[in-house]
Design goal:
single chain; 456 residues; mainly alpha; Glycosyltransferase; 3-stranded antiparallel β-sheet; two-stranded antiparallel ribbon; 51% helix
């Protein structure tokens, strides 16, 4: 019996040692926190080095396997990816103004090359020199130019944001509907990615100008977007479909448009995220707690659909990966609840660890099997690489870097140094600013150098 007791004791001791070892490994793994700033700067540097077209100051749509700009479309990206480049450079300018304020400013002024004319008014064309102008393109450019104006106050930037707003808003029908493209006007289309960014842009223009007509429009759009009769919002899941139709006095998911039946059912993150950002901006403008409650509910719906803790985000750059990070960090700022930020850190940490291919680039494929932010791409050898995926990853990573530097109880408005200054992180009014010199080299928190991607 004594021998049996001894065996039981040894077994128990072994199990405790094993459990303790597992705990140590887990703690060690958790301690290996990514250097978000270093990772964000690395990919932004790669974008500037390999995608920037020095001939026009814009960025290329894609590069080939030899890291050379593909000359399709004149070596220039479509305007939709351009909006994401603006976002990436804006966050880079916040995190390290001494390094990225100038590239951000240069690009803000370079995107005028996308301007074109349709429907008798100016807006942003799909490519420089094109006669095609889409409402969804102008909607997202409205948001980015309004946010650029908040960083670089200058009347021409604000005027361009208003231009994009007017291009879309003047097409609004009696149901608050806007289609994706001018050829769909008069078809009763209620297109989420033309309407929700315009609505968010209206709220931002109210913040910038104080004009009540912008706040009124933002509220009107918000109620229309969430109206269950219009079918865009699925009341069971709290997710938003791509588009619906109002034809002959009734709402439906499908209709005939220019000779073909189109069906707008289906969920993607960015169809919800702009509505969430609108809700947060309306909460900021009005103080109405309802907007904040609904923003949290809609965000939880997105996470339930696409996010698995520790496993990444089942969504890609094209359909809202970085948009969801923007929402999570905006909620962190609004609520002071660190759970939102920790979720963003988890998603982006997984992306940094597993999302880069053999050339150091992040997912740039619209195909979910290859492009989602939960795919292990470390062994993947890329062919062509698009700017869209790199800009989305850069903005997401740099946002997490920015908010990771903030104390609990963060304030509302960033108190930044002038864009021409730089330096180590200091705090003023509860938010970070940069003062003094910042070394431009890429670093890790432990002092070791980062692996050098092929484009550096």
């Amino acid at each position: 019996m004594a021998l049996s007791d001894n065996r039981i004791n040894w077994s128990y001791m072994f199990s405790r040692i094993l459990a303790f070892s597992v705990a140590l490994v887990a703690a060690s793994t958790q301690a290996q926190v990514p250097d978000f700033r270093a990772a964000g700067e690395a990919i932004l540097d790669g974008m500037i080095a390999k995608f920037r077209n020095a001939a026009n100051g814009l960025y290329a749509e894609k590069i080939d396997s030899a890291q050379a700009i593909v000359t399709d479309y004149g070596g220039t990206s479509f305007v939709w990816p351009a909006s994401h480049v603006l976002r990436a450079l804006r966050w880079g300018s916040r995190v390290n103004p001494g390094k990225y304020a100038r590239p951000f400013r240069d690009y803000v002024y370079a995107v005028y090359r996308y301007k074109g004319t349709a429907l008798g008014r100016q807006g942003y064309a799909v490519l420089p020199g094109s006669s095609e102008l889409f409402f969804d393109d102008n909607a997202v450019m409205l948001v980015e130019m309004a946010l650029a104006q908040s960083e670089i106050p200058d009347p021409p930037i604000l005027a361009d944001a208003v231009m994009a707003y007017d291009f879309c808003n003047l097409a609004r029908d009696a149901q608050w509907g806007i289609p994706q493209i001018p050829a769909q006007l008069g078809k009763g289309m209620f297109y989420s990615m033309a309407i929700s960014p315009v609505a968010h842009g209206a709220a931002l223009l109210y913040r910038l100008t104080g004009k009540p007509e912008y706040l009124s429009a933002a509220k009107g759009y918000y109620e229309a977007l969430r109206d269950p009769v219009r079918l865009l919002r699925d009341t069971t899941t709290e997710l938003f479909n791509q588009y619906t139709f109002h034809v002959d006095g009734r709402w439906s998911y499908s209709a005939s448009v220019n000779g073909s039946i189109q069906d707008g059912r289906g969920f993607r993150a960015y169809q919800s995220t702009y509505v969430i950002r609108l809700a947060l901006e309306l909460h900021r403008a009005t103080g109405d707690a309802r907007y904040l409650r609904e923003a949290e509910s809609m965000t939880n719906a997105c996470l339930k659909r696409s996010y698995t803790p520790g496993k990444g985000l089942a969504e890609n750059a094209f359909w809202g990966g970085n948009d969801l990070i923007e929402v999570l960090e905006a909620l962190y700022e609004s609520t002071k609840n660190p759970a939102w930020h920790e979720t963003a850190r988890d998603i982006v940490g997984r992306l940094i660890a597993y999302g880069k291919d053999r050339s150091g680039w992040y997912p740039s494929d619209e195909n979910d099997a290859r492009g989602d932010w939960n795919v292990d791409r470390r062994a993947f050898v890329p062919g062509a690489t698009t700017i869209m995926g790199q800009a989305a990853a850069a903005s997401a990573i740099l946002q997490v870097a920015w908010y990771a530097a903030l104390p609990v109880g963060i304030g509302r408005t960033p108190a930044r140094a002038h864009p021409g200054t730089d330096g180590p992180l200091m705090l003023r009014q509860g938010m970070p600013v940069w003062k003094g010199p910042i070394p431009g080299s890429i670093h890790r928190a432990d002092g070791k150098s980062l692996p050098v991607p092929s484009w550096r």
